[in-house]
Amino acid sequence: MEVFFYGLFMDQSILEKNGLHPSNPLKGYLQGYTLKIGNRASLIPCDHERSYGLLFSVDEKAILSLYAETSVADYIPEEVAIVTDSGETIKAICYNLPASSLSGTNTAYARSLHELARSLSFPESYLEKIRAMT
Questions:
Q1: The CATH number of domain 2-126, selected from 3.10.490.10, 2.60.120.200, 3.20.20.140, 3.40.640.10
Q2: Pairing outcome for strands 41-57 and 23-37
Q3: What are 12-59's pLDDT values in tens digits?
Q4: Angle CA(48)–CA(38)–CA(21) in degrees, nearest 5?
Q5: What is the DSSP letter of 105?
Q6: Are the CB atoms for 33 and 47 separated by under 8 Å?
Q7: CA 40 to chain centre
Q8: Which in 74, 99, 113, 121 has the greatest CB count within 10 A?
Q9: Can you tell me whether residue 106 is helix, strand or coil?
Q10: What residues pair up with 34 in beta bridges, in sequence order?
């Protein structure tokens, strides 16, 4: 199945440490959502915004196991349409924390996410948005 990751799970090595074997990575964005970082990251619906991430093919059983873990169990899957760097639109699942559950701040997470997003060459305006959360 295709899953869109926008937080630290964009780091393939983190997914692999959690028992996933992601393949076919594609950079892309989700239109109409903005990134928020509380204790963890989430995408919140917001007109005229876009959030960048990586689309991976992953095993459905493995992704269900990953999101059963306590630290991410509150995330809810939703079907989204991701626009890839090549302009193709691909349907995928994206796990988001409900806005009502988003709380706190985590500057260490934001710093790590900024470095990861920079290494993926996401647009400078998006990097600035993440940097502002550190």
A1: 3.10.490.10
A2: antiparallel
A3: 999 999 999 999 999 999 999 999 998 889 999 999 999 999 999 999
A4: 85
A5: -
A6: no
A7: 11
A8: 113
A9: coil
A10: 44
